[in-house]
Please model this.
Amino acid sequence: MNSVKIGICGLGTVGSGAVNVLGRNADEINARAGCEIVISQIGARRDNPACDLGDISVSRDIFDVAENPEIDILVELIGGTTVAKELVLKAIANGKHVVTANKALIAEFGNEIFAAATEKGVTVAYEAAVAGGIPIIKALREGLSANHIEWLAGIINGTGNFILTEMRDKGRDFADVLKEAQELGYAEADPTFDVEGIDAAHKLVILASLAFGMPLQFDKVFTEGISKIAPQDVTYAQELGYRIKHLGIASRSSENSDTSNGGIALRVHPTLIPEKRLIANVDGVMNAVLVNGDAVGPTLYYGPGAGAEPTASSVIADVVDLARTLTAAPEHRVPHLGFQADKLNDLDILPISEVETAYYLRLSALDAPGVLSKVTQILSDAKISVEAVIQKEPGAGEDHVPLIILTDRVIEKSLDSAVTQIQQMDSIEGEITKIRVESLG
Model:
């Protein structure tokens, strides 16, 4: 049996997981690959007691791996973008295939990296960059290749999903649950990337490029986090038959675009989903991606979105794929973004103001005759239909009451114009909360 030599750069959570899984399941992995996959070298600043390296060569300089002429596949697991980009481009320049779990690297620099790889006749694989152990990249790139993808929506950040689940199940507020998430290791000391949607935006732009055959455009993703979600919003959503999830959504919106190719909406934000939908019942740190294709209909992909061995599972799957195709001509390999590079389309990315969806509004309104009718009149004048209204009783000594409104679908700029008028009413106190609503059906 021939051997394929890999070099792993980074020996943190995922790197150690990859070493352990490759060692434990070597016979099955090699049988699937049709060759012996050998860890020939590791580049890491320090060892990790979570794995036994045996007699594997270790270098404290990760670039030694990229320069090693014996390495066939470099596995980049160091994270970040600056050094990682330099490492990956060096490996490509030296004719090595690359496997990476780095979503930020692919989302922000993937176009450049893929172009360099194509020029050198090598492949960059990145299954582990989105949704950890869920093989969603392969599903979009290969399993659903017969379909015209109409839209996809995903819970693609476990930290945010854990926080919203705890807020719903236990009535806790955001700050309290975030602190616990940090203590459990689900959230970083600086949780901005998770709770403000940046991590999910990195993943969404990768999924969208695969689904719609377009270059990666991270800078055009509308991003909104969950830090402003209040416990009462979670409660009122349940009263209306919904659950709040932090979703990444990519959809075709040709009816709202002036371009011949149609428009694509790329957005990450809290979303009300009907509680009976499968994706609404994905809780804790789990991830799920719902994809709707014209031929297959809706398909749901569910599983752990992070962790040492789940992510290592995807990393090693990429290694196996590359090992199988090392002798294949570059033009016979699966393209980086699923579509042939010269067939990618520069589709128009819609601004959030042009996106159409339904809305949940929460207002603090004066408990007086005529206030509700004036609010609904403003919405009616803007041609916005109201689907449901909840008006709560005032608390002791309070003269304002929570007013919750669920609208029909409307272009966001029309909704925002109406909300501005409502906000200016003397009978409305404080900021109006707005959360988008999707049926996903």
